[in-house]
Design goal:
single chain, alpha/beta, Rossmann fold, Phosphoglucose isomerase, C-terminal domain, six-stranded mixed sheet, five-stranded parallel sheet, 13 strands, globular, binds 6-O-phosphono-alpha-D-glucopyranose
């Protein structure tokens, strides 16, 4: 670890012990101004972090931490196309996917922007053709249903965003198949008419076993009813491996490429976003990109004290490395963001769930936290008990729109807002045993009853949360929100000192699955595998033989 970073971390640790905010309720009583001081914004997006246990000194020390981790210099290197993904020797340029036509971003001396816009134009022509019914199936019928087959980064982004932008969805119905479990594709295709179904095979590598297996099943669905010649009309593909796509026999006007400098979990802005574009149209997709671009510009230019991704990253580091909180909860008070936590799980945990630094040495600190969540208010009636009274403190990140799309149901939206604000207030304030006792007495409990129940009704409080508010969940707002989190993950990675853009940790399981397949099929005795695995395989095989 570099000495400046080590110093910054140990200063933060002593500050945490000696001088950090210990009692948030008292901090607000003494200084109501903290609500505006510990907040930052970009247009209608506002991030309130005043309910985190930080003060001016904490923020000063965190800014020093950012400086000693060279966050700004590394950010500039990323935007400039340097090969910062050092273990794969690649640039990291998802930001180029949403750059304006006049941007000049180079990889190996060559501008990547014209290529990005050429693909966007081809996607738009295709998407509008499908939406308008000018591109039809083999029997001349327009497409009513589109099935995206992909997994991980080739699935989670489109699924999440299509759901999030349901009010803008005026194209054909969208379906997503990811799991190799045959139940997923069976349930998805059942009820669909092959004549009016378009299948998109989305895979960066075009080798992922789940996707290739489901693609073969989908091919059979089309071919068995419409014949081999229908494949050209009923399939499209999105990949960086255009040579591998060619083998699938697709019409090349229906193949959309992207580049190895786009990580799978950062690829929603590329042709991987095709299903979203088909759902909401190319114009709204352009607004989605513009929202991300607005956050990119902010991330590049805003000073650290006002820079949303840097602040969000530093608060994440504060919670993870200094306060030692093992996880963080993402709770959007927005039903249409119900897949956002799952999307962030891949974005964050596949990026920062590592134990080795970029220099190949074991990390001297913890790395990324466990990320999880569900939309509010549903989560309140499930796991919020643990957030309020559990033995682990879990920082929560709330999201809420000032305005819902359902203007005719304003009362429901008001209830949603009140619940969101109430939860962060409850986590922060808590309720003392004396308050709980007094409340019980005033509700008519006897002294003995109040004394017995008060400990159960006590809330420690001082549980940190960040609240992100925006006007309405438009395509622009969604793009901006996703980009905020992408850059936050980047900022945290710089402090951890890891490469956020590889994912070697997913490989071993894949290799072993390939090796175990013959054992599962009963074609190999599986020499070399451990006794537990072999015994499980044998037990399952015996059940399968009975049918
Ligand atoms: O898009 P593909 O090449 O099919 O990859 C799909 C996913 O699978 C891999 O296992 C990686 O962990 C993910 O980062 C990736 O998004």
């Amino acid at each position: 670890m570099n000495p400046a970073l080590q110093t910054a971390l140990s200063e933060l640790k002593s500050h945490h012990t000696d001088a950090a905010v210990k009692d948030l309720r008292a901090a607000f009583a003494a200084d109501p101004g903290r609500a505006t001081r510990f907040a930052a914004g970009l247009d209608d997006l506002r991030m309130d972090y005043s309910k985190c246990a930080v003060n001016d000194e904490t923020m000063r020390l965190l800014a020093e931490l950012a400086a000693s981790s060279k966050v700004e210099a590394r950010r500039d290197a990323m935007f400039a196309g340097e090969a910062i993904n050092s273990t794969e020797g690649r640039s990291v340029l998802h930001t180029a996917l949403r750059a304006g036509k006049d941007a000049d971003i180079r990889v190996d001396g060559e501008s990547v922007v014209p290529g990005v816009h050429a693909v966007l134009d081809a996607m738009a022509a295709f998407a509008e053709g499908v939406r308008g019914g000018t591109l039809c199936g083999a029997t001349g019928k327009p497409f009513t249903d589109v099935v995206n087959i992909g997994i991980g980064g080739s699935d989670l982004g489109p699924v999440m965003a299509t759901l999030a932008l349901a009010p803008y969805h005026d194209g054909p119905r969208l379906h997503f198949v990811s799991n190799v479990d045959g139940a997923h594709i069976t349930d998805t295709l059942s009820g669909l008419d092959p004549e009016t179904t378009l299948i998109i095979i989305a895979s960066k590598t075009f080798t992922t076993i789940e996707t290739m297996t489901n693609a073969a099943t989908a091919r059979e669905f089309i071919v068995s009813q419409l014949g081999e010649a229908a494949v050209a009309k009923h399939f499209a593909a999105v990949s960086t491996a255009l040579d591998k796509v060619a083998a699938f026999g697709l019409n090349e006007t229906r193949v959309f490429g992207f580049w190895d400098w786009v990580g799978g979990r950062y690829s929603l802005w590329s042709a991987i976003g095709l299903p979203l574009m088909i759902a909401i149209g190319s114009e709204a997709f352009g607004e989605f990109l513009a929202g991300a671009r607005a956050m990119d510009t902010h991330f590049k230019n805003a000073p650290v004290a006002e820079n949303l991704p840097i602040l969000l990253g530093l608060l994440g580091i504060w919670h993870r490395l200094i306060c030692n909180h093992p996880s963080r909860a993402i709770i959007p008070y927005e039903q249409r963001l119900s897949r956002f936590p799952a999307y962030l799980q891949q974005l964050d945990m596949e990026s920062n769930g590592k134990s080795v630094g970029i220099d190949g040495q074991p990390l001297e600190t913890a790395s990324g936290p466990i990320v999880w969540g569900e939309p509010g208010t549903n989560g309140q009636h499930a796991f919020f008990q643990l957030l309020h009274q559990g033995s682990d403190v879990i920082p929560v990140e709330f999201m809420i729109a000032a305005n819902g799309h359902e203007t005719q149901l304003a009362h429901q939206h008001e209830l949603l807002i009140a619940n969101c604000l109430a939860q962060s207030e409850a986590l922060m304030r808590g309720r003392t045993t004396q308050e709980a006792h007094a409340q019980l007495i005033s509700a008519g409990a006897s002294e003995a009853e109040a004394a017995r129940l008060a400990p159960h009704k006590t809330f420690s409080g001082n549980r940190p949360s960040i609240t992100i508010v925006y006007d309405r969940l438009t395509p622009f707002a969604l793009g901006r929100l996703i980009a905020l989190y992408e850059h936050r993950v980047f900022v945290e990675a710089q402090v951890f000192g890891i490469n956020a853009f590889d994912q070697w940790g997913v490989e071993l399981g894949k290799e072993l699955a390939t090796a175990l397949l013959p054992v599962v099929k009963g074609e190999s005795t599986g020499e070399g595998h451990d006794a537990s695995t072999l015994s499980l395989a044998k037990t399952i095989l015996a059940m399968r033989e009975k049918g």
